[in-house]
Amino acid sequence: MNNRPSKKLRILFVAGFKYPKSGLRGGQVFAAKSLVASAQSDQIEWVLLDSSQISLPPPNIVHRSTVAFIRFLKFLYLLCFKNIDGVLLFCSKDFSFLEKGLAAIIASKLGKTSMLFPRSGKDKDSMEKSGIMRWFIPMAIRNSDFLFCQSESLKAFYRSVSGVESDRIKVIKNWIDFDIYKDIPWPASHQTVRILFLGWMETHKGIWDLFEAMKLVNREFQQWELHFAGDGSKLEPLKEQVEQSDFAKSVTFHGWVDEAKKLELIAASHLFVLPSYVEGMPNALLECMASGRACIATDVGGTSELLMDSSCGTIIAAGDVQAIADSLLAYATQIEDSKKIGDNARQHIREYHSLESGTAKMMQKVVGCCSPNPS
Rounded to two decimals, what is the model's pTM? Predict the structure, then answer.
């Protein structure tokens, strides 16, 4: 750990700072850009090294490895010749974790404070599927100075697999620009209840569970629309299944949407559902809560800490199709109660996940970790 005192810390920040050409605005890029631009950033001199994903889906492994190798050489140069005090590394899962984890270990060995921040929430899944990640993730945590994560449940997981002391793992809750969503009104019409899904069209997002749940809902309540906004390998298979169902006309697939379209869909919706099997602290859930929507989500990652009790939304077990259906029916048939739930959710995001509070807490942690007596 670097103990050199300095009025203004010089932090090498490795993260994605560019949105992909597809127009998709990912949460990791937003977090990195907003942190650098925050009012508290005058405490730090940032040295930025961009690790943006250049396409969706990611390029092949040969291309990614070449780009990562060149970036790693730049990292070593900056680390050794630019008088760096500490290193902050945002990473996703698997390949990204391998690259950034190795960088964090090297920084620590060279006497620089290393702060590794996995943001996907999928490391448990990676460890279950890969022997390499089962070995590397705990090793990287033990050999970095600090690990940041987005929820208490993730902290408990990382501690259990690595055995490191509690004070080396810092919880930094995700943040959004609350001002974008705070004035989105409740839909004027309640004749048809509109349900929204925002995210990857993949099995781990629970889209098949949602499809099965809508079969149950449709037996008792037919005044609904379901809107899917997202893309992925399961989009076409799901479309085929919906087309063969007896509620095909009630489901709309929008594909990936830009910011304007996303806000339009949120504004038109009454309910948001996220039936995932794996999450960190999902931006889509934060955004819909900030918009005053009643939300249903599975108890994975940090979602239970967002929907703390029934006054802010509904938490269900992952894979529980009946619970998804029951929750949707309860909200759809008591729409005024749903609005009250949405109002509570909006207030929760205002208090705990706004841009200002989130970046301030993050800056406090970064400065504290790089101080002579880390806190």
Answer: 0.89
